[in-house]
Amino acid sequence: MDFFNKLGDSIQSVGKEVTKKTKDLSGTVSLNAQIKESENQLSQVYRIIGEKYYNLCKEEAVSRYPEETDEIVKIQNKLAEDREKLRNLKGLKLCSNCGAEIEKGVLHCPMCGTEQQRTQTVEQEVQSQQSFCPVCGEPVLAGAKFCGKCGAKLE
What we know:
155 residues, mainly alpha, two-stranded antiparallel ribbon, elongated
């Protein structure tokens, strides 16, 4: 019977130790998560301050940080170019007055009512950019080196 009492005490002791270690580990994980969240918040505030500084003091930023400001301009230009390509793929354009994305064929902006300059339809744009084989007159794909119908070499 003494054996079973000692075994029970031993199991109980181990159980308490496991419980304590689990609480410690849980506390560590929780604190690590809080630290990471605080670091992310701090980075976000620094980013906001940097963006505000750049926008308010652009000339000073350019003189103090020329490489970084050049990179900002490159990224902004790339973003504008990619956004324009995406609008073209979607058949959209920007309103000349308010900057809202609107369908290319609309006559008036649905957001501000400004009359829009008439543009070619997507089909008209494709037709005006389409290439034709000089031998057989068949439409050819952009960048093709040979006609798909007659095999003539394209320039």
